[in-house]
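Slack export, channel: ligand-projects

TW: morning all. Re-posting the request from yesterday since it got buried. We need the structure predicted with the small molecule present, not the apo form. The ligand is 2-acetamido-2-deoxy-beta-D-glucopyranose; the SMILES is in the block with the sequence. No rush, but it would help planning for next week.
GE: picking it up
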Amino acid sequence: MLKFLIFLAFFVIGVHGIFGPADAQYNETEARMLLNLAAAAYSTDATPCLQRTFSPSETQTLLTTFSVRCDFIGNPCAGYIVVSDALQQITVVFRGTKTNSQLLLEGWTTLKPSADFYGMGLVNTYFRSGHEKTWQYVQDALSNPQYQNYDVYVTGHSLGGALAGLAAPRIVHDGLRQSHQVKVITFGEPRVGNLDFSRAYDQLIPYSFRVTHAIDIVPHLPACVKDLSYTPPAGSDGSMPCDPVSTNGGYHHGLEVWYPGNMTQGSPYMICTGLPRDEDFSCSNAPKVDLDDTTMGVWDHRNYFGVEVPAFGKGGCDPTMTFKGPPTKTGVLSLVSSVFGRKRRAV
Ligand SMILES: *[C@@H]1O[C@H](CO)[C@@H](O)[C@H](O)[C@H]1NC(C)=O
Ligand SMILES: *[C@@H]1O[C@H](CO)[C@@H](O)[C@H](O)[C@H]1NC(C)=O
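GE: finished. pasting the full token output, ligand included:
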């Protein structure tokens, strides 16, 4: 009986307790809609994607488009903000980098979090600088009294996900909205801050899903500090979990939703509430990431829900578009069967 109760408590806490209110449920339909908006940020005109994503009764009106000079990788930090009066909703969308895959992985990937973020912990200096340069647009839109009761969605793909991961807690921190009014879904987001930032973020943003795709390399960067007390089992690929107490390296905020497969309709996914918290070792951290062979990891980064995100956005989210397949298929298939064919690993 006692065992059963302990099991039950563990289950209930594991599913609902630690990660905020029970209403923070991952909704794939919502995630797919937000991916379209994140993709649209790669286009000079978000309108075609907006029109294809929302029915006429839920029309989204463009409030602001912004593009400012940013340090990261010499690219602008860009995005747009839309509002729907019917849904009483504002959506803030940040663009990822337009540079090629090689450049994507340069500059920010080795930096430890070192910049204070309004007392919420340390974050990456590149991302913080991008945040500062775009914040004014977010602040202006959310301060408009006309929209003061509107909920706020924040989204972005890749480095746009990093900017979303900073803007969202700042919105609550600055009192522009309350925690329950802000919802975040990002795609292929890198680690934006350290463990302290992660904990502060989770307090402020209980409705937050960080969607990751198979071996997408970007969520593994900048690196976390590995938990050296862990011994990889014989026959494993030697992958190590993140240290759940070190504040020294990068550390993700909540909550990962990992798709080990190709993310087409019906593709299985995992809600990553396992340990270490926010760096669940049975999700994308389980397979060892080969930083020397980034071909597949970059392909997985650019492709979410069956579309190549930047190209899909530039093409106006046209559902008839087709995209190049992955460099090899075997990796993906074996990943799915290795994840769903075994028990979840205990840490
Ligand atoms: C999921 O999101 C979609 C789109 O916003 C919405 O229509 C639907 O009701 C949501 N489903 C649940 C179970 O909340
Ligand atoms: C995606 O994976 C599923 C299941 O493994 C497979 O049936 C389907 O053909 C794949 N689709 C693409 C476009 O690769």
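GE: first-pass observations. DSSP finds ten helices and twelve strands in the chain. Residues 125-143 form the longest helix (19 residues).
TW: perfect, thank you
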